[in-house]
Amino acid sequence: MSEKNEISGQGLGSDIAIHVAPSPHLSDQTFTTRRMMTDVLIGLLPLVVMSVYVFRMFAVTQLVICVLACMASEFVFVKMRSKPVTLNDFSAVVTGVILALSLPGTAPWYVGVLASVIAIGIGKVIFGGLGMNIFNPAMVGRAFVMIAFASAMGASAYINADGGVDAMSMATPLTAFKQSGVATSILDLFVGVTNGSLGETSAFACLLGGGYLLYRRTASWEIPAGILSTVIVLSAWADMSGGFGGGFVLHQLFGGALLFGTFFIATDPVSSPVTPKGKWIFGIGAGALIMVIRLFSGYPEGVMFAVLLMNAMTPLINRWTIPKPTGVA
Amino acid sequence: MADQPTALERFVQGILPENPVYRQLLGMCPTLAVTNGMKPAMTMACSVAFVLLCANIVTSLIRGLLKPHLRIVVFTLTIATFVTIADRVLAAYLYQMSKTLGPYIPLIIVNCLIICRCEVCASKQNVFTAASDAVGQSIGFGLALASIAMVRELLGTGGLFGIAILPTAWPDWVIMVLPPGAFITLGLLLGCVNWLEMRRS
Question: Which residues in this protein are found as FMN phosphoryl threonine (chain A) (predicted)?
Fold first, then answer.
């Protein structure tokens, strides 16, 4: 990370060094990448605990595979670019945990490994490392394996009746709803004892971890607010016009990867817009895409594609929302 | 003309130093579209080689008659003639392959690689030089398509030319035979070529 600013005038005898730098003049020296990543890891803790509680060894194996593979790829790819190794800013660990939590527990080992290599290599380091990537690395890796191994990542892959895990014996809530119109009880969705990708099942854990990120201001509140309000409005609209008979809004809100993606993936500061207005546009766009994919496409869930599509829009949104300097008409 | 490269230079340049795909970035459309397997890629490379050779020879023969403002039209019509021949021959003798390649054989007409060679070499130099230029460029194009198709087919289906090579436990990376695989493979291989070039100099 950047060197500590030199303190001017350290003693009578020493040369007076005046630090000259363009704004912003950050006063908080503790707000580093490492601190942000640690915050995200703390925020992810409830999700990790919940996934291990629900999916047992499936979750543990997937987490270990993804984190180790992400750290190894970070090491190798950064070495290949002959840059200093950046393992100690924890960004690779965060990518690994988010990636593991977004995969189905049943996915074979090579899915996690390949997703990690693609996430770090093609998603991040090829663009110039952390801070330069245009797409969320974990979602790049997940999208790659989702298209590469459709059978290991599709809706049916989530079901594994022999694994000794109760949750895995049923279809994921959104798939059950899409294919047979069966709604899962809101309480189950809230607590998280349903099938799904490892980290997404428990709305409560996502809200807890997400709330911590917002409280620490590691994640900006505008993006979650934009996504959630859009999803609420659109699902309420679909509920009224589709005759789902109420409960649809909460089902859409607590089911699937919405809360997990909203708090931990869409808020990635690197691949989301910088201005508050831009963040609102990003959030509303992502929320609308999620609902369009959920309601009208063949996929039961659309958080990953929605976030990736909005990542691609981010440079444009940034250009739209450049703040006007004071005093200029 | 003294400053024009000789026939041998033209031949050698086409293969690596001025490789149509990796150095000139020409003919990207077939490069991305038909490299999902070795068979279609090689059929495409042969078709392009045939068209390029014939077009270069004819253009070189009539180079004294070319009017500057009409030359592109003449190039295009010449190329279109040979593309039609290639298209009909494929449809007659390799019907399945012709179906697989679909519109990409007729699209050779607008492959910039061929117009570029007519413009750069054939319209200015004698028949022998033009022919060796066409052969060199065709080999370069074929090698480039083969390199991309090899990576994509091997990872995507576990085999080459439709014959299984990797063990059956190999999980097919379906994405590699789909369009995203083409872009990722081309980008990474281009990066490798540039990196090797940087190391050499």
Answer: 172
H/E element, A328: none
Residue B163 φ then ψ, to 5°: -105, 130
- The residue whose two tokens read 């659109």 is A234
Q: Model ipTM?
A: 0.80
Q: What angle in degrees, to the nearest 10, is found between the helix axes of A222-242 and A276-296?
A: 30
Domain range list for chain A: 33-319
Calculate the alpha carbon distances from A98 to A40, A75, A142 in Å.
10, 18, 10
d(CA A275, CA A278): 5
Best mutation target, A109, A118, A144, to test chain B (most B CBs within 10 A)? A144
Closest CA to A231 of A210, A208, A264, A262: A262
pTM over 0.80: yes
A147: nearest CB among B171, B175, B191: B175
Q: Report CA-CA distances (Å) from A40 to A47, A282, A314, B182.
A: 11, 20, 22, 35
Q: Tell me the per-residue pLDDT of B13-71, one tens digit each, with 9 for 90 and over.
A: 888 888 888 888 888 888 898 888 899 999 999 999 999 999 999 999 998 888 888 88
Which of A184, A145, A135 shows the shortest CA–CA distance to A66? Answer: A145
Q: What is the pLDDT of residues B151-181, one digit of tens each?
A: 999 898 888 888 888 888 888 888 888 888 9
Model pLDDT for residues A41-57, shown as the tens digit of each residue: 999 999 999 888 888 88
Best of A82, A149, A305, A308 to disrupt the B interface by mutation (most B CBs within 10 Å)? A149
Each domain of chain B, given as residue ranges in start order, spans 7-200
Cβ–Cβ under 8 Å, residues A77 and A121: yes
